[in-house]
Amino acid sequence: MENVGVCDEFVNLKATELRLGLPGTEDGGEEERQKVSCCKSNKRAFPETEKDIESTGKTKPASPPKAQIVGWPPVRSYRKNNIQTKKNESEGQGMYVKVSMDGAPYLRKIDLTVYKQYPELMKSLENMFKFSVGEYCERERYKGSEFVPTYEDKDGDWMLVGDVPWEMFVSSCKRLRIMKGSEAKGLGCGV
Amino acid sequence: MDRAIKLQLSTSEMNYFPDEVIEHIFDFIPSHRDRNSISLVSKSWHKIERYSRHQVFIGNCYAISPERLIRRFPCLRSLTLKGKPHFADFNLVPHEWGGFLHPWIDALSKARVGLEELRLKRMVVSDESLELLSRSFVGFKSLVLVSCDGFTTDGLASIAANCRHLRELDLQENEIDDHRGQWLNCFPDSSTTLVSLNFACLKGETNLSALERLVARSPNLKSLKVNRAVPLDALTRLMSCAPQLVDLGVGCYENEAEPESFEKLMAAIKKCTLLRSLSGFSEVAPVCLTAFYPICENLTSLNLSYAAEIQGNHLIEFVQFCKRLQLLWILDSIGDKGLEIVASSCKELQELRVFPSDPHDEEDNNTAVTEIGLVAISAGCPKLHSILYFCKQMTNAALITVAKNCPNFIRFRLCILEPNKPDHITSQSLDEGFGAIVQACKGLRRLSVSGLLTDKVFLYIGMYAEQLEMLSIAFAGDTDKGMLYVLNGCKKLRKLEIRDSPFGNAALLADVGKYETMRSLWMSSCEVTLGGCKRLARNAPWLNVEIINENENGRMERNEEDEREKVDRLYLYRTVVGTRKDAPPCVTIL
Predict the structure, then answer these.
(1) What's any GO biological process attached to this entry (chain B) (predicted)?
(2) Does A107 touch chain B (CB under 8 A)?
């Protein structure tokens, strides 16, 4: 395999220098090109591109933070997006919550980010657990239904679903519980 | 090929046979490459071949027009189309670049072609196209969409409602706008022909009762892949009414599976004695993987590459019992230890893909795989011929060992996560390691290289990779010589894609005729200039030379006259139909 005459041409120190991008380009130009390329695609942006450029704290010579390189490593966006979601979940950002219903033998889990507003969420819960909760209105809450959807918020308090603006609900909801019967009356009916 | 030559020798005698007989003989030659050869033998053979060709594969939808395709092959039944270049998978191609399905469906519909099968990859598909498709082809049987986008579940509803003889609806990794409608309900009650249904990539809720009814009335259903909205109890019911399943993709499992539901699931799984292929598991608690223990010895294909919540030790526990596995796609959380166990358990393994669970190295974990795992697999699995391996580090010694252990590689794709990373023990480039691979693997058709590489690796590739058809290069090489070695040496090269490497005009322009023998060339963040590309376009009218600009809004917003400007992204491909008319503003065709 060794062909000394040919090899000598290629052994040059620059090639072994650890750097990203083309030998000969300046770091400034490289970053600029990368910054522009980061904005190109209108597919879901990687969360990393929205972070500030920060030092990774590791000592790698002349190497911009890895997250800056568009399209690297070569993993399909679809796959990357699916794995990202898992990470967010495990960091407890409150997007996936458990749902229980009094009297039902099983728990369910739903992704709150899939819904845009309360009616969608309620419809989905109704489908899931086969119950009906009726319309929510500020005055009387869930009047006329023996089921009342409640949730536990970040502070550990049990609240009625629908009382706070949707975005606040999504960010503070830790889990859902559909109450039934007398316990429900206390929370659900307008007082 | 041999058959074609033999037939050629007896052409003179064969011409006394009626056309139908010759056509019948051609039916035994399905390979489209052999078919292409046959059609070149003589005028009469060309004609007979044309009318008897039912399957056509078009690797680049812009290489030919739908009208010309139909004119040549009017009896077309099965069409495969590929649109965007491969690097579109990694966000390197603007969303609106092209690859639209509609003109094809439109033309096929107008010509009343009896289309039965359509397979698309990286195409832009609209609901209108799907609707037109569903109404135009009475005998339509099979729709396979891979990495496509532009459509919603409304389009799927049309397919479900109108394709009376639908056997296969296979949606793989598409971006589909889920309107959470009732598309599954749109399969009429009389629809009983389904053999394969895959909607794993749909993100919204699924109408479970519609799904269950559909599965219950589809006795021929062999492959079912559901999305994450199908929970454990529904899955149990589905499997109970489809024990004939061969291929299963699992949706979502709640973490708190009640013991009773778990028992029921295991009972249903035990009955699926024909099950050979398993995938999905995107939200699964480890305990639920254990439900599949009863049939794991039968599995030949296992895709756990989306199972981010299952830790390495659970993966290992499961995989070690899958003694008949031929295909394994897994996350690097399995670790080197896990791969060593795979190597000792899965002696039938042919294809392995190890994906990064932490692509951007955010967690700085040490459970990713290294050269140790790769060497172990190569030593333990004698039938291995395809590998895709994402790892943190590699050495020449390991690659040389792998080459010795596995000279049968057809596909070898190695991605070291950090660009330009050298051999982590010797700090040298990985030229020798990859050189060993191409020298030993005489049948190598696809290669992706990574790590620190000089022009020398390309010298080796040009010298030894005689069967190479596709080469992917990133952050590699020193001078134009590197690219030239490849272009001059690899006679069978069809696709070359290069990013962030110092190849420029000299390499690009050295042998313009070479590109006519290839499907396409992609170069991004290299050294080619606008002037070089213009010169190429002038000298090669049979090529479309596309420049994709940085600014999506305008044409070249930088000084257009400055031919010394480096081109950000170049994509060129041979075509018989000239410049395409559907390019967006950010694409300039020279």
Answers:
(1) auxin-activated signaling pathway
(2) yes
Mean pLDDT, rounded, of chain B: 91
- What's the gap in Å between the CA of A139 and the closest CA on chain B? 31
Binning pLDDT at 50, 70 and 90, where does residue B362 land?
A: low
Across the range B306-320, mean pLDDT stands at 88
Q: What CATH number is associated with residue A112?
A: 3.10.20.90
* Partner-chain contact B502 A87, CB within 8 Å: no
Q: Which of A74-83, A121-130, A159-168, B523-532 has the highest mean pLDDT?
A: B523-532
Q: Which domain holds residue B45?
A: 18-53
CATH of the domain at B23: 1.20.1280.50
* Number of domains forming the structure of chain B: 2
Judging contacts by C-beta atoms under 8 Å, the chain B residues touching residue A24 are 502
The contacts of residue B62 (CB under 8 Å, 6+ apart) are B98, B544, B573, B575, B577, B580
Closest residue of chain A to B172, computed from CA coordinates = A78
Looking at the domain assignment, is residue A73 inside a domain?
A: no
- Is B464 part of a structural domain of the chain? no
- Best of B360, B392, B424 to disrupt the A interface (most A CBs within 10 Å) is B360
8 Å CB contact between B503 and B476: no
* B8, B26, B53 - which closes a domain: B53
- Residue B513's φ and ψ, nearest 5 degrees, are -65, -25
Highest-confidence segment of A111-120, A135-144, B265-274: B265-274
Partner residue facing A76 (CB), from B173, B254, B255: B173
pLDDT average, residue stretch B15-29? 82
ipTM of the complex: 0.87
Q: Is the pLDDT of residue B295 over 90?
A: yes
Q: What is the DSSP string of B160-225?
A: HHH-TT--EEEEES-EEE-----GGGGS-TT----SEEE-TT--S---HHHHHHHHHT-TT--EEE
Q: What one-character DSSP code corresponds to residue A155?
A: T
- Would the pLDDT of A99 be above 70? yes
Residues of B in contact with A36 (CB under 8 A): 550
Cα–Cα distance for residue pair B91/A45, rounded to 1 Å: 10
Q: Which domain holds residue A150?
A: 96-185
Q: How many domains does chain A have?
A: 1
pTM of the model: 0.77
The reply to whether A115 falls in a domain is yes
